[in-house]
Amino acid sequence: MATIALNFEDGYTRIIKGRAGDTVANAAFGAKINIPLDCNDGVCGTCKCRVRSGSFDMGDNYIEDAITDQEIAQGFALACQMVPQSDMVIDILASSAVCKVKNETFAATIQKKEFLSTEIVKLTMKAVDGRKITYLPGQYAHIEIPHSGGKTRCFSFSGVTGTDTLEFIIRILPDGLSSNYLRTHAHEGETLSITLPFGRFYLRDITAPTLFFAGGTGIAPFLAMLERLHTTGGVKHPIHLFYGATTDENLVELARLDAFKSKLPFQYQTCVSNEKSEKHAQGFVTQWIDKKVLGTTAYDMYICGPPPMVDAVKKSIQMEGIHSIHFYEEKFMT
Q1: DSSP codes, 7-52
Q2: Residues 6, 113 share a domain
Q3: Is residue 205 one of the residues assigned to a domain?
Q4: What stretches in the chain show pLDDT beneath 70?
Q5: pLDDT by residue (tens digit) across 79-100?
Q6: CATH number of the CATH domain containing 85
Q7: Residues 321 and 220 in one domain
């Protein structure tokens, strides 16, 4: 039984199961998702989608008016014809609203609230009904803040997908709805409402040397990605993380990163920007974007952190002429 992640144009993701021999379209309809479809015979092309990862059998029951050889070479396929042969990630060329996708909302209880630094909290939660919670590593959830009139805040997952436990690493700001709640009111045993998953920043298949750039709590999605890579195994290409924060104490989960070094072809470097450090390099992650350091290799690149950091990394990559095969970014307040 294949796991199929359907990504919609508005950033929502729905993860479904497909029975052996089912087309993607049939699996979607079985999950009550109305992806665009007219003929179901490989003739109209209405169900054309883009495959991001995974293998499948396209069959030969379609015509070129529906999808051309050039489009197939570019990663497009017909949902009404393709039969998954592995887990897949697929872009549906329509919004979740058009496809009548309902968000997955459920209750989860705070199991642990741990301050990793004076500014960063690690929140571990468990689904009340024991459900297995699946998302693409790198994505995020909406968490409703109690007594806020239904207001939510977005937090990236930092743990292992496919379990009944959720983990988030969150920066506590001087003031703000979620920060004030987490700092003084959130307590173990409290139940919150969570809606998930969202986001187009997620781990793809590692098919080339890969660079991760993390700023502040932008480390969270990379931890989820590394957990996934460790679980699935078989990573052949090197992964290098460049991780920056404002102070020593805000470089968090370093022991966890050290553990990944023995499990994966993985290395990382750290820096701090707002103080001198005896443990870490001084400055910003852009200091390592150097042709002399990175060479002429073509990389897949992932960047996550505050907007100025993301923009600075992109500019440095361009100025140094570092070649990227694929490029993914996520900006958020860390």
Answers
A1: E-TTSBEEEEEE-TT--HHHHHHHTT---S-S-SSSSS-TTEEEEE
A2: no
A3: no
A4: 333-334
A5: 999 999 999 999 999 988 888 8
A6: 3.10.20.30
A7: yes
pLDDT at 167: 97
Q: CB within 8 A of 138, min separation 6: which ones?
A: 156, 157, 199, 201, 202, 203, 221, 222, 224, 225, 302, 304, 330
Mean per-residue pLDDT of the chain:
92
Residue at 99 is within a domain: no
pLDDT at 10: 86
Domain span at residue 54 reads: 2-92
**97: in domain:** no
- Dig out the tokens for 204 from the structure: 């793809």
Domains held by the chain: number? 3
Q: What is the pLDDT of residues 7-40, one digit of tens each?
A: 998 888 999 988 888 999 999 999 899 999 888 8
The single-letter code of the amino acid at 182 is: L
If asked whether residues 130 and 192 sit together in one domain, one would say yes
Longest dimension (CA), the chain: 65
* Among the listed residues 287, 284, 317, the one whose alpha carbon sits nearest the alpha carbon of residue 300: 317
